[in-house]
């Protein structure tokens, strides 16, 4: 099975069919089969976030950014989960 097919399947489970567990399974398999894919880890992060699995989502988004530091959507998702710390006034 190709990376894009698993991603398509996971996305359909998650967004079209409302089957979050199956989506996570498809995306987890995608990261195992394609461990160098930033997209696979980003998609897995989305699925984890949809389940409220914040720490798992953060880990997946960070891995996506390790593989592709220019991934703007993973950066934005990570910032939503971990807002930048506010600086204290001097």
Describe the structure.
With 90 residues, this protein is mainly alpha-helical. 72% of the residues lie in helices and 0% in strands. The chain is built from five helices and no strands. It has helices at residues 3-16, 20-33, 38-50, 54-67, 72-81. α1 runs antiparallel to α2, α1 packs parallel to α3 (38-50) and α2 packs antiparallel against α3 (38-50). The radius of gyration is 14 Å and the shape is globular. The N and C termini lie far apart (56 Å). The relative contact order is 0.13.
Q: Which features would summarize this protein structure in a list?
A:
single chain, 90 residues, mainly alpha, 5 helices, globular
- Helix and strand run: HHHHH
- Count of helical stretches: 5
Please mark out the parts with pLDDT under 50 across 5 or more consecutive residues, or reply none: none
The separation of the N and C termini measures: 56 Å
How large is the radius of gyration?
14 Å
The helix fraction, in percent, is over 70%
Average pLDDT reading:
93
Q: How would you briefly describe this protein structure?
A:
The protein is mainly α and 90 residues long. 72% of the residues lie in helices and 0% in strands.
